[in-house]
Specification:
Layout lengths: L2 H5 L6 H19 L7 H30 L2 H25 L6 H32 L2 H18 L1
The structure holds fe (ii) ion (2 copies).
């Protein structure tokens, strides 16, 4: 086997890079909705989720949605996704303004979980399909490199 084939094994495209992070978020929202009252566990998971959502949305907007906004095919979807990032931010603010042992807290957390899961599924099933057509293979790889570099710095 020629040597260069082996070198391709570690190369990731932007979809694989984003998907990895989505799995972390799915796990965290699931855990969060199973926590109770004003506990250390709830605080810890909420802080982790907040951080993961923020670093992902920042890097994703910069290294995925900005290039997609420049293409007619994907501009609408990109705008829609960025608007959903803002919706999630607003819910996080509401959660921060609510006492953790208030009955409303879990209701808001479940709402956040619902929006996050919907958002990730929509990205993976609809946005990735269109982005697959709009971006070149070279772009898919170089965006993953830029995205991963930013995530490594902020995590
Ligand atoms: Fe997103
Ligand atoms: Fe995402």
């Amino acid at each position: 086997m020629p040597l260069f084939l082996n070198l391709n094994l570690n190369i990731m495209n932007i979809f694989e890079a984003l998907r990895q992070e989505h799995e972390i978020q799915r796990e965290l929202v699931d855990k969060l909705t199973k926590t109770h009252g004003d506990t250390e566990e709830r605080k810890k998971i909420f802080e982790q989720l907040k951080h993961e959502l923020k670093i992902h949305a920042d890097a994703e907007e910069r290294h995925f949605y900005v290039p997609l906004m420049k293409k007619d095919l994907t501009q609408g979807k990109a705008r829609h996704s960025v608007a959903e990032h803002h919706e999630m931010d607003e819910l996080i603010e509401k959660l921060e303004d609510t006492e953790m042992d208030a009955s409303n807290w879990l209701k808001l957390a479940k709402e956040l979980a619902h929006i996050v899961i919907h958002h990730l599924d929509e990205e993976e099933h609809e946005v990735f399909q269109m982005a697959g057509k709009a971006l070149t293979d070279k772009q898919k790889i170089s965006l993953a490199e830029d995205y991963n570099k930013e995530i490594r710095k902020t995590r």
